[in-house]
Design goal:
The protein folds into two domains: 43-125 and 282-424, MetI-like fold (Orthogonal Bundle); 150-272, no CATH class. The chain is elongated. 51% of the residues lie in helices and 10% in strands. It is built from 14 helices and nine strands. Strands 2-3-9-6-7 form a five-stranded antiparallel beta sheet, with no helix packed on it. A four-stranded mixed beta sheet has the order 1-4-5-8, with no helix packed on it. The mean pLDDT is 88. It starts with 5 loop residues before the first helix and ends with a helix. β4, α7 and β5 form a beta-alpha-beta unit. With 425 residues, it is α+β, with helices and mostly antiparallel strands. It is found in: Cell membrane.
Length: 425
Amino acid sequence: MLGTRPWVAACFLLPALALLGALVVYPIGYSVYRSFFDASGNGFVGVDNYHEVFTDERIRTALKNNVIWVIVAPSVATALGLIFAVLTERVRWGTAFKLVVFMPMAISMLAAGIIFRLVYEQNPDRGVANAVWVGIHDTFTAPAPFPGAHPVNDKLLTASGGAFTTRSVVKAGTPAALPLVGVKPEDLGGAKDAIPARGVAGKVTGTVWMDFTRGGGGTPGMIDAGEKALGGVKVEAVKDGTTVASATTEADGTFTLPASADGARLRLPAANFASHYNGIDWLGPSLVTPSIIGAYVWMWAGFAMVLIAAGLASVPRELLEAARVDGANEWQVFRRVTVPLLAPVLVVVLITLMINVLKIFDLVYIIAPGASLDKANVLALQLYQSSFGTDVNQGVGSAIAVFLLVLVLPVMLVNIRRMRKERQR
């Protein structure tokens, strides 16, 4: 139409076509060819590699995880992006908020993986997620006062569930001695020196203390000078399996039970010595995939928000105002007007993220620890492991690559058709 000679157009297109062929067409063609050969590349095996793709347990786990990724990650990121875009539209500091939400996009997948590997650290002193979770837990459930403490002699026996009971029954007026060891120095803190309980007629008394003298010495089972009291320990009196009385030790380690405790055995419940709550195993086999998806959403929710906010800016305001004038509340305006008008943008964001998660690799490889890596496996990671891992078989790796391409193609075709319809409008 413009009178351009064909050979001139070909000269201009040739560099682009050469790059396209070298970087796209040739790798795809060679991967298809290589998928029909064995690990050495010399023996033709037909479709055996594809058979292994659908029968190998690790690859099936990777496929299942990819399905979870495709369904959950794009949906959650798009939904959050929509909520952020709509809620910040009328807020003065909306631009600053959008900037903060979008900032993770400037971080590479590798850096984000390292960040969230630390966030999900099991130790609450290092991992932010467990630090918050443990803080919330300890707000409603008091931690054990002396985790790990245990008896030192035969005066106390270990009962079911980790509790400790006296060997014999106690008598009113005769103080009971309940010595323990194994208390961590940090749990003692500013504990007072233990003192022997006084006998009180008609009542059961006693002392719970740390039966350990610094520098050695002292008499086991006896309160020696300098030995520390264990305050805040719950003591129960049990008769025939029923708790008849209970008390909590004072700061000096002493306790007093009513006359109903006479002839009962004393029990120190396991709750006194339970280990401190250590949070959730975020990167354990059951939660590793949702945890990694959370890291992905943290990165890509800002991307979705920016695109949806751009689409929201082009929505005719008169339609929104007309809906409000007709009596629609804000939720109805959002659900029946805003979302339908944003549908094309939401589809673009959703499809883009679906293509992106189908080839997710970096986050899974960095965040998942070795013990949970198989449970967090995805196709792109399995492709790498099959091709370059310990069991090198580039035939199987090529088959996974072809299968991954087949999974991506329908999503790409839907996107292309949508783009063509947009152009026709």
